[in-house]
Structures are given as C-alpha cells and as structure tokens.
Design goal:
Pfam families: Amidohydro_3 (PF07969)
Strand content: 15-25%
Largest sheet: 9 strands, mixed
Number of domains: 2
Number of strands: 21
Oligomer: single chain
GO molecular function: hydrolase activity, acting on carbon-nitrogen (but not peptide) bonds, in cyclic amides; hydrolase activity, acting on carbon-nitrogen (but not peptide) bonds, in linear amides
Number of helices: 17
CATH architecture of the largest domain: Alpha-Beta Barrel
Protein name: D-aminoacylase
CATH topology of the largest domain: TIM Barrel
Distance between the termini: 24 Å
Shape: globular
Domain Amidohydrolase: 45-253, 414-497
Length: 518
Amino acid sequence: MFELIIRNGTIVDGQNRPRYEADVGIVHDRIAAIGQLGDAEAQLVIDADGLVVAPGFIDVHTHSDAILLSQPHLLSKTMQGFTTEFLMLDGISYAPVSRRTVHGWIYYLRSLNGLRFEQYTGWESIGDFMSLLDGKTAQNVATFIPYANVRTLAMDPGEQCPNDYQRVDLQNLVRQGMADGACGLSTGLDYVEQCFATTDELVAACRGMRVEQGVYVTHVRYALGTLEGVKEAVEIGRRAGVPVHISHLKGRNEEEVEALIDYIDLVAVNEVDFTFDCYPYMSSSTMLQYLLPQEIWRDGVFGAFARLTDPSLRDRFQRRLDTLDLSSITFAWMPGRQNRQLTGMTLEQYARRTKRRPADALCDLLIEESMAVLLIFHSDERGLEAEFLAHPYSMLGSDGIFFAEGKIHPRQYGSAARLLGHYVRRKRLFSLEEAVYKLSGFAATRFKLKNRGVIRRGAYADLVIFDPETIADNATFDDPHQLATGVEHVIVNGTPIVLHGKPVSSALPGRYLRFGAE
C-alpha cells in the first residue's frame, strides 16, 4: 500500500526528456513506483488529470536566510512550486559568525533579511545555523559559504591582502563550511568586505574546496563591468580548479548581452565547468548602501554608519549618483513607520521633496533608518533577459527578497510561474521540458543534491503538480504581494505542503540538503 498516489498526471521528469502519462506512488519520503498503478490503494490519492507532475523546483539564489526562522512556510515561494531554497548568497549571511562579528551582520543585513538582534540564539558555524532550519520548515534548504562572513572572521575590516596565516584561516573556514554541508563558496564582490578581496585572495580561498569540487558562486565585480567581472570569475575558477557559477547574470543593453553570450560560448565553458542563473525580469533590487563608495566599509559596518555624515564621502557619493538615472530607482522597503509612505517613490522625487542634494538626502535617510533601505532599479529594456533564460547553461535563481509589506520586487512571488506562463506558454521561448529542467534537475545536478530534481523510482518525493494552461505570475511592481496561480499541489519529502491550491499549515517536512549527501 502506498501513502500517496498521484494518478493520471503528465510526467515531466526534470531531465529534459519527453513528457509521458503515468501514476506516481509514494512511500514515506521516496517515489516507490511510476507507471499504471491500477487498483493500488493509498492513504491519499491526488487526481492529476490535465496537470503536469514535475520535480519540485529549486531556487538557487534566494535571500530567505532569516525569514525562514520566523516564517517556516514561505508561501510566496511554495505557491510557485519551489520545494528547495538555497541560502547564503552574494557572500553575505548570518553564519559563520563569532560573538565579535554577529551584530555587525545582523545590522548590515536588515534590508535583505530583517533579522532582529533578539533572534540571535548563539549559533556560530554554518552547521549551527542550518540546524535551526533542518526539519523545521515546509521547504528544503541548502546553502553556500558566504565569503564576507569568512573574511571578517579571518581578517580585520578593510584589509587589502591576507598574510600567510590569514590565508590558511580563510581556507580552513571554507573547509569547515564544506564539512558542514555547503555546496560551495558564494561571493558578492561589490558588497562589504568582499570589495577589498583581490583575485589572488579568492583563488586561495577557493582552493579550500578543490578536493570536494565545491562551486564558486559569484555576484561578480560589477565595478569592473559585467563582462570583466565574469572573466575574473572564470580566472578564479580556472586557477583554483573549481566549477564556476555566475549569479543573476544579465546585460544592460543588446551589445553587452551579445558580448556576454559570446564570451560564455567561446571561452568560459571551455576554460571551466561553467553555469549561471538568472530571473525572468530586467529590473533588479538591492540595498541602498550598495551605492555608497566602497571605501566606506574599511572600518566595518558600524564604522560605515559613523561616516555617513562625512562631507567628503557625501561628495563622492554624489558623483556616483550623478551617473545614475534616479528617476528609475524606487524605494521598495524600509523599517521606519514614519517613512513607509516613501515606498514606490523614486530617488529623484525624494530628493526634490527634501529640496536637498540627493547624496545628502539619502545619507540622512540611511542614518534615520539605520542603513536599512531596500531599492528597486527599474529597466526600460524589454526582452534582453530571454537570451540568458534560454541559454543551455542557465538555470533559475529568483534573487527574491521577502518583506510582508512595501513594494518589493515581484520576483519573490512570480519567478517560476512567470517562466512557465509567460516564457513557455505565451512566448514559446523554450519547451516545458526545458523549463522544468532549468527549475529542477539542472540545479540538483549542478550542486550535487542527490536524488533530487528528478522523477524516478527511489528519488525523493519533492513534487509540484500544476496546470500548464493556467500557471501565471500575478505579482507586479505596483502590487507585488500577489501569489502565483496554477500550482495545485506541492509535496516535500513525501508530505503535501500545498493541496488543492491551499497551504497545509501544519506540515513542516523540509530538510537541510547537504552537498553530495543523500
């Protein structure tokens, strides 16, 4: 007897093979049978007639690190079909930390994750942090090693180059992260601490995971330009002997897109084991502090806050702002109730409203909000993302940032559904089989999540059942907190977490998925 049978579904198996009709029988957390199961009985039977049965989707780039501690079922993601969230991207997160560094990280990350100081319970290692989620969430979690956290443990703030002892410490911390189950090392080379890391330093750090073949996952050094940043990433992977994965790859215009695609096809894939992720929007989102001159981080996070009043720093900040179209950048979220009416307003409108120079107005806002201001960078370009979405080396990473209020980027609520609805059904950019592969099997293979991302006997029963004719994203920039539609059932480790389009609130079957482990 099965615990669950899915009958009459169209199987899209996550391996980019042709769809077929079959029943799926589940026992405990595994797929036990695939075929015509006839009169077989089960405790629960789901009729999937007219629906697609696919492996649960894997989001390889999220910022769900903290929200899952307080909201174990992240509906904005599961209602798109995501069953696994990758954490600790862009080289910044809540572990590894020490008593010396943890408060700086909680302070710095408030506009990404919103963790409060009182939520810190004493964890230090990646293993400690992930144990807080293992078996306590609806969806599975996997992780990378955030390099800035590693760097702040081994080096003082703003140091340019590690000495021999620090280099050993960096490598040992990377090895410890891999031993804790991480899938590789993540960097965000425009963010705090990592902006000071040299190419040689990153090569040395990556050598700490060469034996395991952990993946170097990077938000590239955009200060160099996107193409030059990707080239640096490939150099790091080649010299360190590790695979390379580029986070949220996109181009600003047709010329840059063409140059990036040419480099990937002609050089990158021939020099290293290369992949990348992207999301189905041109507009992006990050913290306001990202725009500050990088030198502000030389004295650490709290030192940076103190420097926000420095006139010379404000002058340099203004020169940076002068290169941007402030009418295309909007406030997405900030914690202060007195400023929440600013969400949706452009930086240009805000500066005019304050009747001040933009740098002064924004630095004072950062002081008022303790540096926790989230932005959206809107783009008028249309269709450029399609080149990356359709590329054979790409998979989906939403880069989603969740807050329950504000005008956050709709990618948090819509990425997978938009891929399947807009780009598969409407635009016919690629086949349903290809899209499901990008959402599941490709990611599982890339990051060595064994027996995930595939429908086959013996694989873990992480499944999404959706209507290919109706699945759609509903979130917009004006109204982002709208759940996707078309996903009927979601199963994690054999346990339904969504049934008939409704969440199963008591179900928390998610696990910590370790690199290369069952």
